[in-house]
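anyone seen this seq b4? input:
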Amino acid sequence: ERLPRGLTIAQHVLLDGANPNSVTQCVETCRRNARQIRESIPPEIWIIINRLPRLLAGAARRGERQDDLNLRQALALEESLLNQFDALTGAVEKNMVQGDTRHFWNLGVQVERALDTISLLRPVLLRRPDPRTGELTRYEDHLDAALGMLASRYAYRSLYQSRPTPEYVARLLLQDELAPRSVLHCLRELDRSLAFVTRGQLPVADAAAESPVRLCGQLLSHVEYADLRPYFKTGNGHRVPRLRRWLDDLAGRLGELSGLIGDHYLHHQAFNIIR
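predicted toks r here
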């Protein structure tokens, strides 16, 4: 996709208000949603929510003066944002009452994490380097980078004590119940929060009607009991197209789950924490 004229990649991803997926726009969406439920948000969380746009606005002003956001500034801004997002997550865990609002927050977090994991894994797992060309070491570096981006490098090394391999990385980030960024762990958390927000509700009269609880349960079984070994078996010429279809289907169904959660529980209220 072509960048808007005059913008660097860093500016487009971090600061571009016209980009609906930029960090600036995501932070603004978070603030807008939080204002709709301000009575449920403790002051400790508001401090961080209000600090984030100031941080981004300051970087945008500096970029306008220089007509650019150089690499050093972009990396410094990224580090500051990551620290603030970690602080926000910690403040939510520490200060927010474990009621509906907290569980709706968790629903948004877990759907986003699961989709991010699949999005980062897909291009790496679907690549198959030829060991005869010397690409294997470079490919291992790409796998290691994906683990780092998903905060799972330590988890991988603790479990496997080896250089990254596609099959082991897939097992960790798709099916490991204890890895916080694995799809299976995210689905377990989604199931837990859905059970809380639907407590006391009567079953849907139409048994054929899709519900977030039902779809989440189906996805849990689908991921937990999937046999991933054929996708990584040497000599299986169809393994890459089949793995691509499996990952695309999983991402599509997670997107469907996100929409169902919004339709069932959020759109009739004044806020929507799931993008």
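Residues 268-275 have pLDDT under 50 and may be disordered. The longest helix spans residues 239-266. kinda curious what u guys think
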